[in-house]
Amino acid sequence: MKIMALTLLTMLALTPAAPAAETPPLPRPYPETDVIPEPEPVLPRSEASRTAPDRIYRTACPAVLQGRVIAEAVPVIRDEACGLRSPYAVSGVTIGARAVQFSQTAIVNCQMAGELARWLERVDAYTAAMFNAGLAEVKTGTSYMCRGRNRVADADISEHGFGNALDVTGFVLTDGTEIGLPDDWAGKSPAARTMRLAHDAACGHFTTVLGPEANALHADHLHLDLGCHGESCTYRLCE
Fold first, then answer.
1. Using CA atoms, how far apart are residues 194 and 200, in angstroms rounded to an integer?
2. What is the spatial distance between Cα 140 and Cα 170, in angstroms, rounded to a whole number?
């Protein structure tokens, strides 16, 4: 038995071991024919901020969202010393279920758009009382325009330069009646009384209201704006 065991062990020792399985090579991250790309450079925060596109900070307009003002948001206006961050192209207002159109689109800010809607509701009530007809159209003049006050080149920038003003020359009623300046100001006709009531009502909605009695430059229109007067911005100018 011992001899057989020794013989078996000798045979096992002389048997060549099976070759170990080769370990497959790890896959290359890139094919041999490809060029390994260089990593993107990491810019300092200050330099990265300069290369990123500017974010435009704009605000929604409640009067537009509520449907009281008919308008579309237009691109930001940057114009030398003037400009407007959230301009709206206003084509009219809604009074009740009736659309009242502007004779030409007015580029104004949201505050002006909302206050115009409130003011025109009062004007509509006056025309209903005087003519038994509501407003169909507002005759609008200058809205946004980058210029000095009273068109003086070296004067302070006009509120028109910030979309904060609108000129109104008159109204067209639903029965076709037209009311306008300068003709319908003096006298006691229904048209003249309506125009004066519109002027006086505007003084409760805007901080600046200039009409034919302010100066010759405003003989043919009402200038309406929301400019700040006084340190507290509560002073009003109504002429």
1. 10
2. 7
Contacts of 139 (CB under 8 A, 6+ apart): 103, 168, 169, 170, 171, 172, 180
| Cis omega (within 30 of 0) for bond into 62 | no
**What does DSSP assign to residue 176?**
S
pTM (2 d.p.): 0.76
Task: Give the E-state strand segments of the chain in sequence order.
Answer: 69-73, 77-79, 82-84, 88-95, 98-108, 135-140, 165-173, 178-180, 208-210, 222-225, 237-238
The DSSP call for residue 195 is: H
Of 176, 195, 220, give the one whose Cα is nearest residue 126.
195
SS3 31: coil
206 residue type, one letter: F
Residues composing the chain: 239
In DSSP terms, 225 is beta-bridged to 165, 208
Tens-digit pLDDT profile for residues 70-111: 999 999 999 888 999 999 999 999 999 999 999 999 999 999
Distances (CA, A) of 128 to 19, 50, 111, 122, 123: 108, 57, 26, 10, 9
Q: How far apart are CA 148 and CA 133, in angstroms?
A: 38
CA atoms within 13 A of residue 93's CA, in its CB half-sphere: 25
- Which residues make Cβ contacts (< 8 Å) with residue 50, sequence separation at least 6? none
- 27-74 pLDDT per residue, tens: 555 555 555 556 666 656 555 455 556 666 889 999 999 999 999 999
Q: Is the pLDDT of residue 137 over 80?
A: yes
